[in-house]
Amino acid sequence: MPSKHARRTGGGIAAPYLFLAPALVLFVVFLALPIAYTIYLSTRRVQRSGLGLGKGSVREVNAGLDNYAAALSDASLWTSWLRVLLYGLIVLVLMLGLALLFALMLDTARVRLARFSRTSIFLPFAVPGVAAGLMWGFLYLPGTTPLKGVDFLSASTVLYSMANVAIWGGTGFNMLVLYTALRAIPQELYEAARMDGASEVRIALQVKIPILMPAIILTTVFSIIATVQVFTEPTVLRPLTNTIPSDFSPLTKIYTDAFVRGDLYSAAATAIVVAGISLVLSFGFLRVVKRQAFGESS
Amino acid sequence: MKRIGLVPTTILVLGALYCLFPVSWVVVAATKTPGELFSTATFSFGSGLFSNLADLFAYRDGVFWLWMVNTLLYAGGGALLSTLVSAAAGFALAKYRFPGRNAIFNVLIGGILVPGVVLAMPQYLLFSKIGLADTYWSVLLPQILHPYSIYLARVYSQAAIPDSLLEAGRLDGASEWLLLRRVALPMMVPGLVTIFLFQFVAIWNNFLLPFIMLGDDGKFPLTVGLYTMLAAGANQPSLYNLIITGTLVALVPLIALFLTMQRYWRTDLSSGAVKS
C-alpha cells in the first residue's frame, strides 16, 4: 500500500523506482546482458569454408545444442567435476566443521584468550585468495617448506594441499556467522538444561546445534556456491607444480577454453552448464533466506 | 569447572596458531636475503628486509607502486559507489510499498547465485566490442552491483529508520530525495560502513575479473600483479624473495584495516541495529 503522504508529495510514486534505478541499470548491463550473450554464444559455432584462409571464409553459424552435447560428453569436464566434488567435500566438511567447533568453543563459559583466538581465526578473511595461495604455495614448495621430506604438491597430495588453502581462508568468516547466531540465543534456554544436570557437551549437541541449523544451512549453501567456482587456488598453485592440469576445475577449464584455446562457443556452453549445476545445488538458498529474514515483514 | 575452560581454550588457541602460521611465516621470510631463505631456520629473522623492499619497488621500473595505487582505486572507488547504490536500493525496498517490489527484490538477490566466470567472460567480450576492455572502467564498473549488499541495506534500513520519522518529514514538505539524503543515509551510516568494508575487501581480493579483463600490467591490481610475478618467477628461486615481500606488502593494508575496524565486521546487521 503506498503511503498517503507519499502519494500527496507527487514524487512519492516514482521515488522508489528512481532509487532503484542505478541498481537495476547495473543489473541489466552487467548481469542480464552478459548472461543472455553467453547463452547466445553457446548456440553458435565457427564455420570455415574452403581452407578457411580467405576473407569471409570464416563465418559464425547457428550450432543449436551441439556445444552443450559436446560439453556434456567431454570426459575432461567430468573429471574436473569429480575432482571438484572431492575437493568440495573435504573443504565443506572440514571448514564448516571447524567453524562450528570454534563457534561453540567461543560460546562456552570460562574460555580464555577468546578475543585473541577469535580475531586470529577471522584474520584470513582479510587475506586475498591469491596471497593465501602464494603463502601456502611457498610453504609447500620443496625449497622453502619448513616440513622437509613431505611432498605437498605431488599428484596424490595436491588436492588436499589446495583444500587446506580454502579451509584456512574460509573458516573464520563462517565461524563468525555461526558465533553471531549463537549469541542471539537467550541464555535461559541453557539454564533449564543445566538445572537438569546436562553437560556442556550435551547442551551443545542437543540445544545449540539444533537452534543453529538455519545458520548452518545458510553457510553451507554459500560455501557450495564458492567451491563449485574454485578458480584462484588452482590458478595460483599451478606455476609451482606440474601436477595441476589447466582443466583442473570447471572454471579453470572454461578460462582455458575461452582465452587460451580461443573457443568461446564451447566455453560459453560449459559456463552455462556450470551455472546450471550451481543453481540446482543452491536452489534452496533463497527460500531459506526469505523465510529467515522476511517471513514476518512481507 | 576449571577443566571445562581448558578444552575450549586449547582448541581455540590451536585454531589461532593454524591461522597465524602462514602470515607469520611470510613476515619472517620477507626479512631474509635470497641466500638466507634457503639456508636459515624457518622462523629466524634474516637481514634482507630493506634490500627486499628496495628490490620490490624497483621491480620493472616500480610497477608494484602502480599495482598498489590501482588496487586502492578499484577497491575504494568501487566500494564507495557500491555502497551508495545498495543504500538507495535497500532503502527503497524496505521503506516503500510499490508494484513490483517483491519481484525486483527477488531478481536482484538472484544475482548472488550467478557464478563469477559466467559473467566475467561475456563482460570481457562486451567490453571489447565497445573498446573498453583493458581499461580501469572494465574492472570498476562490473563490481558496483553487489546483490548481498542490497540485501544487507534492506535489512538495515528496515531496522534503523522509523517510518514515523519519514512521515514527519513528508508532512514538513520534504521531497523523497531529501528524505533519502538527510534522514535515511545518516541513520544508515553504521550499516553502510559494514557494507563498504565487505565490498572493499571483496574487490581488493578479487582475482578472476581483473585477470580476465586486463592485459596491460600498468592497470593490474595487486592480486593479478603478484600472480604474474609468480608465473614469471616460479622457476627462478632468486625471485622468490621479491614475491614473498610483495605478498607481505599486499597484506599489510588489509590487516591494518581489519584490526582497526573490528567493531564493524558484523554479520548481524538487523539485530545490531535494534540494539544500538
UniProtKB/TrEMBL annotation, chain A:
Localization per Swiss-Prot or TrEMBL: Cell membrane
Predominant place of localization: membrane
Transmembrane segment boundaries: 12-40, 84-109, 121-141, 161-182, 203-231, 264-289
Membrane topology: Multi-pass membrane protein
Pfam family, one: BPD_transp_1
Keyword terms of this UniProt record: Cell membrane, Membrane, Sugar transport, Transmembrane, Transmembrane helix, Transport
Name assigned to this protein: Multiple sugar transport system permease protein
TrEMBL record, chain B:
Domain ABC transmembrane type-1: 68-261
Chief localisation class: membrane
PROSITE patterns with a match to the protein in the record: ABC_TM1
InterPro entries attached to this UniProt entry: MetI-like, MetI-like_sf
Transmembrane segments: 39-59, 71-92, 104-127, 183-204, 239-259
Keyword Membrane annotated: yes
GO BP term (any one): transmembrane transport
Cellular component per GO, a single term: plasma membrane
Topology relative to the membrane: Multi-pass membrane protein
Family label: Belongs to the binding-protein-dependent transport system permease family.
Protein name in the entry: Multiple sugar transport system permease protein
Organism: Nonomuraea soli
